[in-house]
Amino acid sequence: MNAARFQHFLAIDWSGAKGERQKGIALALAHADGGPPVLVDRGKPWAREEVLAILLDLPENTLVGMDLGISLPFADCGAFFPGWEDSPGNAKALWELIDRICADDPHLEVGSFVAHDEAREHFRHGKDDEGAHFHLDSAATREGRFRKAELAQRAMGCRPVSNFNLVGAAQVGKSSLTGMRMLNRLAGRVPVWPVDPLPQKGSVIVEIYTALAALEAWPEGKGRKLRTIEDLNNALEGLGSPSVRGSGAIDDHSSDALITAAWLRAVAHDPARWTPDALTPEIARTEGWTFGAL
Question: What are the chain's domains?
Fold first, then answer.
């Protein structure tokens, strides 16, 4: 990997919640020439469509990390939705299916998809409301199905949640599904690694897991949320990044974005991050991968 391949590193902490604007969305930018990561502040909560507009007009050679799952489990059962005749055969077709079914849902929401007669049977919707196929993989735990990338995250000390889970504060299902609607809108405009090959130049979007960035930056924190400026700066120091100003409390959406922007800058030029052992061509086109998971 060319050490000067990327000039900007944009980390996006994403949200799948209902509504036009999301307090859970945060963007942070780090520059290849140094300096602390900085929040991209609009003075009000972000709308998902505003983030889409930014991704359609990126500075040249920007590496974008999005904290969401870019696909669903496939390898464990040989399909995203076994038994459903319309189950897509690859990640891009999955994005298109979700976006088409949710065409009338505002703000890139996904209510129509998770309520769809066939799709809903694969998701956990509530404590006592699990679809009939949520535990379809006979090897799955009660946590549901996982992608190969998420198994790699676990081996590195993280605790990922199934993208089929729509319940609880740690759920990632709706975040991932809303993100897939957005990725469908970007088709042909910005490549999404590894579903798309890594181009020799230009901007690229990758999936990130902010807990992995925090764990690598500050092992003593054991991957926990960075809820003070002091903890954030301890993690930034571990990445060789200058500190951010201030002291005291910080919301974890902002700290997740800031630490991950700096982490992307620190690790993006490591060839091993782009060539994990378990990433086969079949996994790339179906499940995708989490950047940095080895």
Answer: 8-70+186-274 (3.30.420), 91-178 (no CATH)
